[in-house]
Amino acid sequence: MVFTPTDRNKIVLKSFPQFTIGGDALRFVKEFKYLAHIISDSLADDLDILREVRNMFVRSNILS
User: Fold this and answer.
1) Which of 1, 19, 20, 47 could be bridged to 38 by S-S, CB 3.0 to 4.6 A?
2) Where are the domains of the chain?
3) What is the pLDDT of residues 16-48, one digit of tens each?
């Protein structure tokens, strides 16, 4: 995953070349799940917190 720098003066390129592994092109994504955590390119964990809150509500509703 490519993270944008927080300091805009350190941006070298606005677009990156296509990365390949074994001839297969890799996709650029905004977020992905790794070890059950959602990682986003903005370095915020809001999506992961929302996922955990939803899971908490589901587990709470099972009890009632």
Assistant:
1) 47
2) 8-63
3) 788 899 999 888 888 888 888 888 877 788 888
